[in-house]
Amino acid sequence: MTTGLVLSGGGFRGIAHIGVIKAMEEAGIQATHVAGTSSGAIIGALYAAGYTHQEILEFVKGVNLFSIYKYAVNKPGFVDTEKFYKDFKRLFPEDNFGTLKLPMFITATDVLKGALKVFSSGPIIRPILASAAFPGVFTPVKIDSNYYIDGGTLNNFPVDLLRAECENIIGVYVNPFLKIQIEDMKHSYQVLERAYQIRAASTSTDKFEDCDLLITPEGLRKFGTFSLKDTEVVFELGYQSAKQKMGQFLERISK
Prior knowledge:
Largest sheet: 8 strands, mixed
Structural class: alpha/beta
Order of helices and strands: EHEHHHEEHEEEHEH
Mean pLDDT: 90
Distance between the termini: 12 Å
Number of helices: 7
Helix content: 25-40%
């Protein structure tokens, strides 16, 4: 039986994906294919490489996304995405999709052509970085002769990449979209984040019905894309949300 795991983008909220993986481990559910965008690409690639939820969580905790040593200089963005390459090289020493234990699909957006790109072979680290390069904050990533940014710009929930490949789809969506007040947007990056959420919601919610198990952890609306605290809380939200539904999913696939 083939089971696809699809992990949406969502920035810091993507830590909830790790909690879902913990619940899958406890339930004995192993995905056979993975697709991810942005933070979902990071977590998904580590899962596809065979790392446990604990190993993934420790890695994410140890990588400071806004380290002063990673600020961009003369590049279009505040954080130099390329400077994270060495962090990922420790976990992907051979830097190639071919070393993964599971097929992995990563979305990114060609910022010059305005087109979606799906990576599934060749070097893996820069596609991961590109998929997570939130526009205006992280610098675009050069791959070959093209420049890529956040895959969530065009496909934040890539269920479509696995639907034909898998009998069952577990979808985890961590980018909640709720009505807010103007007072909630005090900084320019919050306006940019809101625009991203609007775009993501408009292209993602129609895919919910294509998931055999859909996990949308409640409580994530309190956390922004660039939150830097309460890692364990977000992890636990993902874990508890998934744990509540794992029995239902196991019963469904056993019929």
